[in-house]
Write a structure and sequence with these properties.
This protein is α+β, with helices and mostly antiparallel strands and 349 residues long. The chain is built from 13 helices and nine strands. A hairpin with a 2-residue loop joins β1 and β2.
Amino acid sequence: MGLSDSALRRHLRAAFGEKGDAYVSADAHAGTTTRSRWQLNGHGGPADLPSSVFVKSPAQDMASRIMGVAFGLGRREVIFYRQLSAEVPVRVPKMYAAHLGRRPGTFSLVIEDLAEGTEFPNLVDGCSDDVATAVIDAQAKFHGRYWGSDRFAGDLESLAIGHWLKRMWLRDLLLKASLKKCFELHPGVVPAEQQNAAKDFLKRTKVLDRHTQGQAPFTLIHGDCHAGNLFVQGPTVGFLDWQLARQANGLYDMSYFMFSSMPIDRRRALEADLIERYRRGLSEAGVEAPTTEEANAMHALNALHVWMSAVVTGGMANLQTMDATRGALERAVAAVDDHDSFARLAALS
């Protein structure tokens, strides 16, 4: 069970005092968390109150709830909003309240409702060139702020890479369970050679992690930077769903976005320029950027992370729409093929 309406109302009162009682639940939908919109009851409410707020709370179905607890999804997002949302150099929804419960996986997050005047890219169509450029610029600025930060041994220790890597056996378990189902649900999308490579790949995921997200220099990453977790307000791109925020190599975010969220032909045309743009952005942020050769090698391996994510989602039909799932899977298949990623991983020790 997720949080009850009465519990969520308590958190609205914590955010807005007695005025929080003016909010009523308007709509809700489920995923890895329960997402609901709460609106003021009636018209002409106090001028200092938002007309609506967005609330995240634990998933209702047991499978998603267990996954949320296992990966610490709600906890990570609450930590991000409490400790980092006010300081990060990128646009994120304003936080009104963030609560961690005593029971594992119990949390609530009350944030700005972005429904009006905001565009939301989607995983079916992918991002435009302009949005892609804005995302890469924002990533470089964001990563540059926390590049090599010692805070992961201090106030951000709970987001340190070591904690995340210890959970990767769960990801591998999900991948193993999803492979056959994904191939059955999406016949013809994953070519035979990639299906055949999957068995050996399952034995080498730790090698992949060590050479990609577990490789210094480290920074703070979003961890799930795809089109469905973005919003656009004029020329500004903002970032949603910080459930996978953690310390890792920043190139993970850069690659994950390009491979998961750009139309295949546009990614092929622009990725070399975008990698260089990201490197320049890091330099402008005052950090020593990876060389072009280092960035290209990491980028090629990072395609396998997107492939894993797409296969797991493809084998769990309730996480996204079929069109979005298929589109993401097609982009991931093209990414590992374009960069010969399975062979590159096989050559590593």
